[in-house]
């Protein structure tokens, strides 16, 4: 009885070690090919484990991370506009864009992936990346222009930068599905 329990425990531990090693290998392999290696590794290592260790699953981890960051940016921009109406004009475009990212682009990209349509997912994520790049520039320039009013602004500009970079990582992973 004790021997079989010990054997089962050994098999369980061995399978856990192999699983963690496979996960680490896939993340390392995927992120070594990425333009933003460190961000890729940290995102995939911290991502939810509910996704399979496949390019599709890894893409979903990154895309969900984009949604979380975009949601945070929408809240931050909304708060800033409410406090400092002077920045409403330059920030309203990004506020609307990130709202669309959260409520339209990401859900459609995820749906395309879940329906095994990586080409459509790539088209959606590519358009989203182009918009994120433009908003990154707007967020940074607005932060510089209104630096006296926007203390702590660099955090939001940095978040915009990370959204764009995460979208690039998602595209790099998605390209393996086509």
TrEMBL record:
GO terms for molecular function: enzyme inhibitor activity. It comes from the Eukaryota. The keyword Signal applies. InterPro entries: Invertase/methylesterase_inhib (IPR035513), Pectinesterase_inhib_dom (IPR006501). Residues 22-173 form the Pectinesterase inhibitor domain. SUPFAM superfamilies: Plant invertase/pectin methylesterase inhibitor. Transmembrane segments: none annotated. The keyword Signal applies. Keywords: Disulfide bond, Signal. Pfam families: PMEI. Residues 1-22 form the signal peptide. PANTHER family: OS01G0111000 PROTEIN, OS02G0537100 PROTEIN. Belongs to the PMEI family. This is Pectinesterase inhibitor domain-containing protein. The lineage of its organism: Eukaryota, Viridiplantae, Streptophyta, Embryophyta, Tracheophyta.
